[in-house]
From TrEMBL, chain A:
<dbReference type="GO" id="GO:0016491">
    <property type="term" value="F:oxidoreductase activity"/>
</dbReference>
<dbReference type="GO" id="GO:0046872">
    <property type="term" value="F:metal ion binding"/>
</dbReference>
<dbReference type="InterPro" id="IPR051452">
    <property type="entry name" value="Diverse_Oxidoreductases"/>
</dbReference>
<dbReference type="InterPro" id="IPR006058">
    <property type="entry name" value="2Fe2S_fd_BS"/>
</dbReference>
<feature type="domain" description="2Fe-2S ferredoxin-type">
    <location>
        <begin position="9"/>
        <end position="85"/>
    </location>
</feature>
<keyword id="KW-0560">Oxidoreductase</keyword>
<keyword id="KW-0408">Iron</keyword>
<dbReference type="InterPro" id="IPR036010">
    <property type="entry name" value="2Fe-2S_ferredoxin-like_sf"/>
</dbReference>
<protein>
    <submittedName>
        <fullName>Carbon-monoxide dehydrogenase small subunit</fullName>
    </submittedName>
</protein>
UniProtKB/TrEMBL annotation, chain B:
<dbReference type="Pfam" id="PF01315">
    <property type="entry name" value="Ald_Xan_dh_C"/>
</dbReference>
<dbReference type="InterPro" id="IPR000674">
    <property type="entry name" value="Ald_Oxase/Xan_DH_a/b"/>
</dbReference>
<keyword id="KW-0500">Molybdenum</keyword>
<dbReference type="InterPro" id="IPR046867">
    <property type="entry name" value="AldOxase/xan_DH_MoCoBD2"/>
</dbReference>
<feature type="domain" description="Aldehyde oxidase/xanthine dehydrogenase a/b hammerhead">
    <location>
        <begin position="29"/>
        <end position="144"/>
    </location>
</feature>
<feature type="region of interest" description="Disordered">
    <location>
        <begin position="1"/>
        <end position="20"/>
    </location>
</feature>
<dbReference type="InterPro" id="IPR037165">
    <property type="entry name" value="AldOxase/xan_DH_Mopterin-bd_sf"/>
</dbReference>
<dbReference type="InterPro" id="IPR016208">
    <property type="entry name" value="Ald_Oxase/xanthine_DH-like"/>
</dbReference>
<keyword id="KW-0560">Oxidoreductase</keyword>
Length: 166, 793
């Protein structure tokens, strides 16, 4: 293997606030690196070509499809998954709202859905239901029919806006 | 002591209330444990080389390149697995005439659909197994493919399985009354041709299985994303020659099922066979192309149907000729004749009429096998029935609500037997319709529709009444010889700390099964739901049962849980009576405390009773029973099925320039008997509606004339997304079944059953002033523009 076409790549990144160094296969997807090598099984592989959003994670502040990114691209990145967002209590209100509203059934889409929803909410403002639906259109849910998810996200948006006013 | 369900202030009144799901919190934290999250020591991965053609003789197989891939340990062909795994034949004795050839875990001599597994590659990583599978070289000698349903029985069409004689898998004709006579004398006869597209379930978690064979113990453990663990236990035992008692199926979190994960799949049986041959854990996770090409398909029907009405709109006769293509094999063990059979059973379901004829013709073809998927047969039967009723109303100039009111069984008519010979214990079509009309403010909506039309907008209202088959008895599968349990059981025990554990044979795939069970057990025993732990999905631990399908979890599993909980309560109170020197009948259990039944005065916490029974049993009378574990089973006996009913309405707008349909609102009133958890029932209905809306507007598996699958990805097979879906208004009427104390019927499929017909009728209501009509689902922009005459070729 030449330096130009290595089949293994060294990466150093942070995942959920913790430093990670690894030598990853050049073709390994980020979602597989997280799930197989780091044991972070919260984000899920589903369609494996960037359509369904079940593998959505946060990379350098934005939602990214874990199945469309190579682990080798993560050198120097700051990566957050549902596990880290849970441990740091960053999305507790959103998680509580999902449980209270039963905005999940099988739960397979939920970790990705939460990351996508948090991206919208953290942009500030109080999105309308239509804006919430539009933002979540890259995340498939086959169980709920979406309405409960929209309700949960809307309730958190309003609650956060209320707190901001106070 | 019976539970006073109508008194919301009764003690421990958890049944009928929205109680949070105990397993939801772990799922929002990413702490679920789906099959692919499990890794076992020495685990290997299997990937499959699959047929790229619809029908071919399998010639020489060259495995050299595949075996050379780093990490590959073994490669298996169909002949290799046939030595350790017996084939299966998916027929049922009560579906007379149903035939199907033997099917192997890997194709042996012949591949019969695109995606059929041919060679299995086992490697240390999934990536290596997949790479090697792509390097398997098979010499496929093309055979003619049968792809068209309607010509499958023609003389010049090749026969897929020559040993079966023809391509007919199953045919059933049901006749009641004098259809020809009624048609001849009718005021109006309306006929139409309907078509429902091939769908698949698109579970976000693909099919997943991890099988571990321990030769030292002679035990197989399968971690399986399945709806029916005990059924799979029987299947693995039977076909891999293992005693049933030595097969354990564990079903943890399941990422969606909808009927997809209740069938036997060749690649999953192959995984188990390979685990047994290699003595190591083997994992198979389907990729998305495998999901589209090998998960069961459903609903590929073509129908000619007629309705006859008198001048008052009374239905005189319905005549249905239904055809469906099921792929090359009937699917094991439930068979692929059930869907067509359901169409025959369900057409005309809400209506009191006399003359009925329906025939279903089920043919083989070289496509992915079809089988039972959420609301089996219902969306087809409801579309036929409600489409015809709306067309008849239009022909008569009658309001679609009015024609339904004139024909639905009266709410006090029950019990009745339908012309399809279905027996209805108690339904509420009129009360449900009245509630729906109120919720949607029908007259105001008609005014809005008229107003919109003046502005050049084409809006439509569509109504769909329906019945839904739930709580199946052995009449569904057991009488046909399938080892699929219609009975289910629950074991409830009290531990020393006063907490309660319930083990149930029904399973959870996100419906809220465990929440439902926890609130029933909590009320039945007299503790808080948080004091109840639910265990499901482990054949070595739970009572034997059927699992979760056909909307049976609450009605069957819930009643078993209630009876077990009540029995435990009685056992606890017998001990409490001895300890407190009181008559047990004067005591009650409330919020984990033994109390005086009349005054509610607290006498003793359950943990004190637990301490005495488990650690100081010497202080209790010698002959006092102290069994703090009780098991009860439940099976329906009076009716083969507990039918539910409901009615849906859709309000939408059709853009007549683009053919695009915009859903404006959707309503559903549903009667599933006793509602145990209102929130969970509503969300089952909403989710079901959206699956039905997908069928109405987007979902369609495409094949070319050679049987090649054309849209095997989520980018090409469209499912509903958040932005296109409406908010939905859900209402209930409650007509509990008398078969159980709980009175619950199923609710999981009602949404899917009625939504497509409601949308079809709404589109046709919108298009009627333009003289256009659509009856072929999904109602894509292209089909709508063709109906409008705006595309012609």
């Amino acid at each position: 293997m030449t330096e130009m076409f290595r089949d293994k790549v060294d990466v150093a990144l942070t995942v959920n606030g913790e430093p990670v160094e690894a030598r990853v296969p050049a073709g390994q997807h980020m979602i597989d690196f997280l799930r197989l090598d780091l044991g972070l099984t919260g984000a899920h592989a589903s369609c494996e070509h960037g359509v369904c959003g079940a593998c959505t994670i946060r990379v350098d502040g934005v939602s990214v499809r874990g199945c469309l990114m190579l682990a080798a691209q993560a050198d120097g990145a700051e990566v957050w998954t549902v596990e880290g967002l849970t441990d740091t209590a960053a999305i507790t209100d959103l998680q509580d709202a999902f449980v209270a509203r039963n905005a999940l059934q099988c739960g397979f889409c939920t970790p990705g859905m939460l990351v996508a929803a948090e991206e919208l909410l953290s942009a500030g403002g109080t999105p309308s239901r239509a804006e919430i639906r539009e933002h979540l259109s890259g995340n498939y849910c086959r169980c709920t029919g979406y309405e409960a998810i929209v309700d949960a996200v809307e309730s958190v948006a309003k609650a956060r806006a209320g707190k901001g006013d106070a | 002591m019976t539970i006073q369900f109508n008194d919301p202030d009764r003690p421990n009144s958890y049944i009928g209330k929205t109680v949070p799901r105990p397993n939801a919190t772990k799922l929002v934290q990413g702490r679920g444990r789906y099959v692919d999250d499990i890794a076992l020591p020495r685990m290997l991965h299997v990937a499959f080389a699959r047929s790229p053609v619809a029908h071919a003789k399998i010639g020489e197989i060259d495995l050299d390149e595949a075996k050379a891939v780093k990490g590959v340990l073994r490669v298996f062909t169909g002949k290799d697995l046939a030595e350790v795994c017996t084939p299966w034949v998916a027929v049922l004795a009560h579906l007379k005439g149903l035939k199907s050839p033997p099917e192997h875990p890997l194709a042996v001599d012949r591949a019969c659909w695109v995606g059929e597994p041919v060679v299995a590659v086992v490697a240390t990583t999934r990536a290596a197994a997949e790479e090697a599978a792509s390097l398997v070289m098979v010499d496929y000698e093309d055979l003619p493919a049968v792809t068209d349903t309607m010509t499958a029985l023609d003389k010049d069409t090749p026969v897929i399985h020559p040993e079966l004689g023809d391509n007919l898998a199953f045919r059933r004709l049901h006749e009641e009354g004098d259809v020809e006579g009624a048609m001849a004398q009718a005021h109006k006869v309306v006929s139409a041709r309907f078509r429902t597209a091939r769908h698949t379930g698109v579970t976000l978690e693909p099919r997943s299985i991890l099988v571990d064979w321990n030769p030292a113990e002679g035990q197989m453990t399968a971690y399986h994303a399945t709806q029916a663990p005990h059924m799979m236990q029987t299947v693995f035992a039977k076909h891999l020659d293992i005693p049933e008692s030595r097969v354990r199926v564990i079903c943890g979190d399941v990422g969606g099922s909808y009927g997809i994960k209740v069938h036997v799949y060749p690649d999953e049986v192959a995984t188990a066979a390979i685990a047994k041959m290699m003595g190591r854990p083997i994992k198979f996770i389907a990729d998305r192309l495998e999901s589209y090409s090998t998960d069961i398909h459903a609903r590929d029907h073509e129908i000619e149907a007629k309705i006859a009405v008198d001048k008052d709109g009374k239905i005189l006769a319905i005549d249905v000729d239904d055809w469906t293509g099921i792929g090359p094999y009937s699917v094991y063990p439930r068979t692929s004749a059930i869907e067509g059979n359901q169409v025959v059973n369900l057409c005309g379901g809400p209506y009191d009429f006399a003359n009925y004829r329906a025939q279903t013709t089920v043919v083989f073809q070289n496509k992915t096998p079809t089988c039972q998927y959420r609301a089996v047969g219902h969306p087809i039967a409801v579309a036929i029935t409600e489409g015809l009723v709306d067309m008849a109303a239009a022909e008569l100039g009658m309001d679609p609500v009015e024609i339904r009111r004139r024909n639905m069984y009266a709410d006090d008519a029950y019990p009745v037997t339908s012309p399809a010979k279905m027996r209805f214990e108690g339904l509420s079509h009129h009360a449900s319709m009245d509630k729906l009309i109120g919720m949607m403010d029908y007259d105001a909506l008609r005014a809005d529709q008229e107003d919109a039309r003046k502005r050049g907008k084409y809006r439509g209202i569509g109504i769909a009444s329906f019945i839904e088959l739930t709580n199946p008895s052995p009449f569904m599968y057991g009488i046909g010889g399938a080892r699929i349990s219609a009975q289910d059981g629950c074991t409830v025990r009290m531990d020393p700390d006063g907490s309660v554990v319930a083990l149930s044979g029904v399973t959870e795939q996100g419906q809220g099964t465990e929440a439902m069970l926890s609130q029933i057990v909590a009320e039945g025993v007299g503790v808080n739901p948080s004091q109840v732990r639910i265990v499901t999905g482990d054949t070595q631990v739970t009572p034997y049962g059927g699992g979760t399908w056909a909307s049976r979890g609450a009605g069957i599993g819930g009643e078993a849980a209630l009876q077990a909980a009540r029995a435990l309560r009685d056992s606890i109170l017998e001990v409490a009576g001895a300890m407190l020197q009181a008559d047990a009948s004067t005591l009650d259990i409330r919020s984990g405390q033994v109390v005086d039944g009349d005054s509610g005065e607290e006498r003793m916490p359950l943990e004190e009773l637990g301490r005495i029974v488990y650690f100081r049993g010497d202080t209790l009378p010698k002959d006092l029973p102290r069994e703090l574990v009780q098991t009860r089973h439940f099976i329906t006996m009076e009716y083969p099925f507990a039918f539910t009913n409901g009615v849906q309405a859709s309000y939408l707008e059709v853009d007549t320039d683009t053919g695009v349909v915009t859903l404006l609102n959707h309503w559903c009133v549903e009667d599933c008997g006793r509602v145990i958890n209102p929130q969970l029932v509503d969300e089952q209905i909403r989710g079901g509606i959206v699956q039905g809306l997908g069928g109405a507007l987007y979902e369609e598996i495409h094949y070319d004339a050679y049987g090649q699958l054309l849209n095997g990805s989520m980018a090409d097979y469209l499912v509903p997304m958040a932005a296109e879906m409406p908010d939905m208004q859900i209402g209930h009427v409650e007509t509990p079944t008398g078969e159980s104390e709980l009175g619950a019927k199923g609710a999981g499929e009602a949404g899917t059953a009625g939504a497509p017909a409601a949308v079809m009728n709404a589109i046709n209501d919108a298009l009627r002033p333009l003289g256009a009509q659509v009856t072929e689902m999904p109602f894509t922009p292209e089909r709508i523009l063709r109906a409008l005459g705006k595309i012609e070729d």
